[in-house]
């Protein structure tokens, strides 16, 4: 370590403890603007081109109309922002996630949703689904087991998928909702 410090060209070594102490002492304070930095433009000058903007002197800053001062703002560097009207206290019920739902009434507590009734599948639909799923599975098995890719294996895999898909699309229910009269309004 001493050899490295001597080779640095006579620059004294950095005191890490002092550097950390300075960082901790300055935590939460806004750093000064770097030299040559332009101040923020006032809202009246936002639409003007940059070369025409003249910064206002510190004593001539525009003041808002007699607004009450907000409560103590969080320290600089804080990333917690609450919506307006939401308290920032630390007690129970003070944060946005401390909400508890109301107790359910007796009617709501005993509700059990019914099981959905699924339509019975016919034989054609079952074979169409078998072809849609089985065609790619057959081709995947042929690749994994290193079978010779013959014409009938390829035709069965690709043709089964395409045929099953076309069958399922062709058998979709069409026009069930079109039969209703759209002028009746809401039906309760």
Explained architecture:
The protein has 188 residues and is mostly helical. Helix content is 33%, strand content 0%. The chain is built from five helices and no strands. It has helices at residues 2-7, 16-25, 106-109, 123-144, 151-170. α4 runs antiparallel to α5. The termini are far apart. The mean pLDDT is 75.
Give the arrangement of secondary structure elements.
Layout (H helix, E strand, L loop, with lengths): L1 H6 L8 H10 L80 H4 L13 H22 L6 H20 L18
Helix pairs in contact: 4-5
User: Which term fits the overall shape?
Assistant: extended
What is the total tally of β strands? 0
Radius of gyration from CA coordinates: 37 Å
| Proportion of residues in extended strands | under 5%
- The ordered H/E elements are HHHHH
A few lines on this structure:
The chain has helices spanning 2-7, 16-25, 106-109, 123-144, 151-170. With 188 residues, the protein is an all-alpha fold.
Q: Which features does this protein show?
A:
188 residues, mainly alpha, 5 helices, 33% helix, extended
């Amino acid at each position: 370590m001493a050899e490295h410090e001597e080779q640095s060209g006579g620059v004294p070594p950095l005191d890490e403890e002092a550097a950390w102490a300075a960082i901790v002492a300055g935590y939460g304070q806004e750093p000064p603007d770097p030299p040559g930095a332009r101040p923020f433009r006032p809202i009246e000058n936002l639409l003007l081109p940059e070369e025409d903007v003249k910064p206002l002197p510190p004593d001539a800053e525009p003041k808002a109309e007699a607004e009450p001062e907000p409560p103590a703002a969080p320290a600089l560097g804080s990333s917690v922002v609450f919506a307006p009207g939401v308290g920032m206290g630390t007690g129970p019920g003070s944060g946005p996630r401390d909400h508890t739902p109301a107790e359910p009434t007796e009617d709501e507590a005993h509700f059990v949703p019914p099981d959905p009734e699924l339509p019975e599948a016919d034989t054609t639909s079952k074979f169409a689904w078998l072809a849609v799923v089985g065609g790619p599975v057959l081709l995947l098995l042929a690749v994994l087991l290193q079978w010779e890719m013959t014409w009938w294996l390829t035709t069965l895999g690709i043709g089964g998928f395409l045929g099953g898909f076309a069958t399922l699309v062709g058998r979709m229910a069409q026009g069930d909702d079109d039969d209703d009269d759209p002028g009746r309004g809401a039906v309760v």
